[in-house]
Amino acid sequence: MVWKLSITALLLFSISSTRAQEEFVQTPSKYITEIPFRLLTGGIIVLKARIGNFPDSLNFILDTGSGGISLDSLTTARLQLKTEQSQRTIRGIAGIRKVKFWYNKPLHLPGLTVDSLNFHINDYDLLSSVYGEKIDGIIGFSFISRYILHINYDSSKIFVYTRGTVRYPRGGYLMKPLLVNIPVSSLTIRDETQVTGKFYFDTGAGMCLLLSSDFVEDSMFVRTKTRWKLSQAEGLGGKTPMKQGVVKQVKLGPYKFRSVPTYIFDDDFNITSYPFLGGLLGNDLLRRFNLIINYEKKDIHLLPNSHFREKFDYSYTGLGMYMVDGLVKVVDVMKNSPAEKAGFLPEDIIVSVDNDPRGSIQDFKNLMQYPGKKIKVIVYRNSQPVQLNLRVGSLLK
């Protein structure tokens, strides 16, 4: 039998087949603007932006480890912003506190205004002291989630795109992190043994790797009694003591890094929600990739850049110095550290490092990043100049 179809039937068949292949395709992502940035100690990203109707540019840290967007309390007071108390709390490595908000205000970036943001208010005076320049706020999830960001550490620029379809570059690795407000990635860490865990993906952390002591003790893959030195780190609520050393290997996707500088801390305020997380992966390691952050699709694409094979900073001084009232002041000296052996004391004012009396705190820290180097440091103590000779230590010894 020969089947014959009418023209109408053929048309209906054709239309039906076409419809079966239809699908809604998202609009391609479109370029909006580019934002220049600088890197501070530890790989921290700092960029310029304005808020509200104020003409002056402020310094913001771009931080995937922040679940919102925030302003410094001193900046808020200086600008006389009208804030409102809330019942919401935020947690950091050194404290938990309730916060005020500056509601429904715009953020002005080069070539882009972001409306209707709720800025929470926090105290970043300690961060300003650490970096030697005013930190006015932190830009996190509230901004990052609205766009696709290409962070290029080779050009020191952030390229901002609309949400939409995007083709990722060849030769990289596409992560699929867990994401609520802060991305969580999987890492494999090897030291005495090997362990795999989940960690915050945190561009706002000026370090390579931070582990909670609970994670370390339960997994028993690190020997903390050998080659681990007393140190501290700064975060929300103040300073917190830590141990500083090196783990043999960190594996992120297909990428392996050997002898990675690492901090271990007592997570008293449970910022890592252990046992869900083991700690955080910081920007001194992440800056070795150019990143595409696409929160809408829960994608983070990593592409090794020109910094990929740079040596890690293994220097150790045990010297806690901060910018206080325009002066570089010694605040903390770790026991049995190179700084203590060199004779540093709290309240010393550092005025010269390696015959450079004009350096900023960033310059002084950079000069102290070479293990084994002998450095001449001039301090003022009781209004008198004192010369100290510091030999920079190494985390590898």
Commentary on this structure:
- The protein is mainly beta and 397 residues long.
- The chain has 3 domains: 31-161, Cathepsin D, subunit A, domain 1 (Beta Barrel); 177-285, Acid Proteases (Cathepsin D, subunit A, domain 1), CATH 2.40.70.10; 315-394, Pdz3 Domain, CATH 2.30.42.10.
- The chain has helices at residues 7-20, 73-78, 125-131, 141-144, 213-219, 283-286, 338-342, 361-367; strands at residues 31-40, 44-51, 58-62, 69-72, 84-92, 95-109, 112-122, 137-139, 148-152, 157-161, 173-175, 178-179, 183-190, 194-201, 209-212, 229-235, 238-252, 255-265, 279-281, 289-294, 299-304, 315-316, 319-324, 327-333, 349-353, 374-381, 384-391, 393-394.
- Strands 2-3-8-4-7-6 form a 6-stranded mixed β-barrel.
- Mean pLDDT is 90; it is low at 1-20.
List keywords for this structure.
globular, single chain, disordered N terminus, Cathepsin D, subunit A, domain 1, 397 residues, mainly beta, six-stranded mixed β-barrel
